[in-house]
Amino acid sequence: MDYLPLYMGIGVLAGVLAGLLGIGGGAITVPLLLWAFAVQGISDAVATHMALASSLGAMIVTSASSAWAHNRRGAVLWPVLLFLGLGVVVGSVVGVLTAVELSGASLQIAFGFFLAYVALQMMVGFAPSAARKLPGKTGLLGAGGVIGCVSMYFGIGGGSLTVPFLSYCGVVPARAVGTSAALGLPIALWGTALYIASGWNVQGLPDHALGFVHLPAVLGIVATSAFCAPLGAALAHRLKASQLRSVFGIVLLGIAAELLWSNLG
Predict the structure, then answer these.
(1) pLDDT for 177-220, tens place per residue?
(2) For 101, how many CA atoms within 13 A lie in the half-sphere containing its CB?
(3) Which of 77, 119, 166, 219 has an alpha carbon within 20 to 30 A of 130's alpha carbon?
(4) How many folded domains does the chain comprise?
């Protein structure tokens, strides 16, 4: 637990940026956890998987709070959420089972490309226009499967995928965001459980690890992130959010470039 203050600091930064820029999950916590685990000397063989798993574990509390808040405002499409969630259950299993077979370097390369996508989305402000209606049950199950699988690779709650998908299907922004926020809870819960189970007998894990989930990291991030998100939201009303998103997008591009260079170069 010696590094608990470090994880609490990561939670502060993640919470403020989530409230300020409307982003969160793996885009912030995974790169910071990779750095924190390197500082501790945790083996590269398990560090990337631990960062993904711990990011999902830290999202359980924040996802539950966000889902509850959006549901109070009637912004959650429960019939849509049901079938997306069922797809997430299957897709998450596929995602974790394949992710644990990949090397940390391979996952970091994939994560680098994902960060570049998020960065460009922030800088350009891309939002897909409604081009079709929501698919039927089978289509929602398939979409949930893809979202669940990808979320396991990147330690995210799926918002960067779910919101564009629902917007493309004609769902109004408030309900797209609300339904996406609610979907983040089963993603976080199920993903954390799967990473615990898949890492249970893995050698080389540090103390206080539950499977691939590093408990001090989860506790430290949760302890501060939820309290700091309102601070970020308050700052967003005083600062020019568009400029901040551009600046942070450049920072994310830099992180993506470093991950790609160090693993491909």
Answers:
(1) 889 889 989 999 999 999 999 999 999 999 999 999 999 999 99
(2) 6
(3) 119
(4) 1
Question: Which string of DSSP letters, residue by residue, matches 66-101?
Answer: HHHHHHHTT---HHHHHHHHHHHHHHHHHHHHHHTT
Give per-residue pLDDT as tens, 171-186: 888 888 889 889 989 9
Q: pTM of the full predicted structure?
A: 0.90
Q: Which domain holds residue 114?
A: 4-264
Q: Which string of DSSP letters, residue by residue, matches the chain?
A: -TTHHHHHHHHHHHHHHHHHHS--THHHHHHHHHHHHHHHT--HHHHHHHHHHHHHHHHHHHHHHHHHHHHHTT---HHHHHHHHHHHHHHHHHHHHHHTTS-HHHHHHHHHHHHHHHHHHHHHT--PPP-SPPP-HHHHHHHHHHHHHHHHHHT--SHHHHHHHHHHTT--HHHHHHHHHHHHHHHHHHHHHHHHHHTTT-TT--TTEETTEEHHHHHHHHHHHHHHHHHHHHHHTTS-HHHHHHHHHHHHHHHHHHHHHHHH-
**Beta pairing partners, 210:** 213
